[in-house]
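Cross-posting from the modeling subforum.

Setting up a comparison between two proteins and wanted a second pair of eyes on the formatting. Protein 1 (sequence, then C-alpha cells):
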Amino acid sequence: MKFRRGILLFIIGVLLVAYFTKPSKDGFIKWMQPVVSRTHNPPVVDYQDKFLYALVTATYVDAGNPVKENNRVVAPSSKETYIGVFGRYWKQ
C-alpha cells in the first residue's frame, strides 16, 4: 500500500511541477533571440497554451533570398514545432 501511495504522490508531484513551470510566449521569444539575431527576421510564432505544456509553431521566412517559382518571386519559408514543459522548449 505504501508503494502505491508513493507512486501516486510522485505522479501528482510531477504534474504539479509541469503545470507551474510551463514556459510562456515571452520566454520562447527570449529563447529564440540567438536565431533572430543571426537571420535578422523574427519568426511568426503561433503559441498554444495547453494545460500542462505549451505548443509553439515557429514559421521562418527568408525574405533576403527570394526564389523564382512559376514566373513569380516568392520567399521560402520553413516551420518548426516546439513543445514547452518544465521551463524549457524542445524541438519536435
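Protein 2 (same layout):
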Amino acid sequence: MIKRLLAGAAAIGAIGGLGFLYYAWYPPIEPVEPPDRGSFSAEQIERGRIVAAEGYCAECHTRTDNGGGPELAGDYKMDTPFGAIYSSNITPDPETGIGNWSEEAFQRAMHLGVSRKGVHLIPAFPFDHFTKMTDQDVSDLYAYLMTRPAVHMTRRPNELPFPLSLRLLQAGWKLLYFTPGVYKPDPRHDALWNRGAYLSEGNAHCGACHTPRDFMGAEKKSAPYDGAVVDNWIAPPLNEHNPTPTTWTEDELFQYLRFGVAPLHGPAGGPMSPVPHRFLSTVPEEDVHAIAHYFADVDHAAEREKHDKAALARAMEQSKIDLVGPTVDPDAKLYQGACAACHYNAAPSPVLGRPDLALNNALWLDEPTNLYQVILHGLTAEEGQTGVAMPSFYNALSDQDMARIAAYLRRTRTTLPPWTDLEKKAAAVRKTITTIPVNSSH
C-alpha cells in the first residue's frame, strides 16, 4: 500500500513537473537584420517617442554610476533585496542590444516577459505592467527604439545568488503573480479616467514604485499605491492613505507631473524628479491630465479636499510664528538659521518656489527619510521647480543638527507622533549618498 502511495505521488510530481516545463518553455524567435529607418514613418516614430517618454525607458535603461553611459544602452544598476540587477541595452545594436529582434520578439518581451531567445525576464523589468499596453503602442515603441543610435555596450552580469539566478524559476513567479492581458476600459468611468488608468497601470507603471512588495518581490495587490521604499527614498502613497493635510487634487497632481512642482505640496525630488522634467513635460498635455484625473479619483480627492482650507490656514500661521519675535527653543533657532528664510510663507497660501514644509509629504511619512535626503542632497535648478535650487547641507549640518530640525518640524508642523532614533537614521541616510553634491553648503 505504501509503495503504491509513493508511486502515485511520484507520478503526480512527474506530471506536475512536465506541466510546469510545458508552461515555462518558450521557443527562440529567429534573429533578423536590423530594420531600416525608412521602414518606419515619421508619425510612428514620434508616437513611439511619446510611448517611450511615458514609460520612462531612458530612466532605467541608461547607466548612472561609473560616470554614466549612453542613453538606452542599459547597465543601470537596480539594488533589490535579492541582489543587484543591471538593465539591458535596448538600442538597435545587433550584438549587445536588440537590433536583431523582430517586432514579434519585442511584442513577446513586453507582453509576456520573455526574451527573443526564449529566456524569462526578471520582473525588475515591469512586464506585469507593460502587458496592459496595446499592440499599437508596443509597435510604435519598437519603431522608436529601432531608429535610435546603436550603441555597442555590454551590461554587467546580474548579482543574483543561486537558485534565484535560474531564469526558469521566473516562470514560477509568473504562475503566482502574473496575469497577461491588455488593459480593458472600465465602463463605469469616462474616457479621460480610462486613458489615465491605461497609462498609470500600464506603460507608466506607477505601482512599480508606489506599491509595497511582498517577500517574493511582487506588488501587494491588497495594498495598491500604499507607498514603498525606492532607491533609498520613500515613494509616498498615491491613494487616500497619503498623510499630507492638504489633498492631492487633480490640479495639484497635474502641476506636479507636468512642471515638477505643486503649489501646495512642493517640488519633485529624488527618483521622482526626472518624471516631470525629462519625460512628462515632453508628452501631450492631455495625457498628463488623464493621469492626474485618474489618481485624483484613486485618492478620493473630491471627498477629502473639504478639509484643505483649515489645514492651509494652520500651516501659514505656524510659518509666520517662526519669524516673529525671539525664541528660546534651541531647535527653533537652528531651523530659523538654516531653513526659515527660504521656507517662510504668509497667508493666504505658499509662494511657488517657497515650499511650506507643513504641507509636504516629507514631514508626514512614517520615517524622516525623504526629509533627510533633501537636506543632504539639496535640489538643483534642474530638479523640482525649474530654475529654483536648494543647496545641499551635507557639510553644513551634522547628523545631530538634522535630527534636531526633524524633531522640531515634526512636532510643530504635524499632528503626528514624534519620529524616533532621529540621529541614527540621519547617519544611515547619509551613508546612502555616495557622491557629495556639488551644490553643498559650507
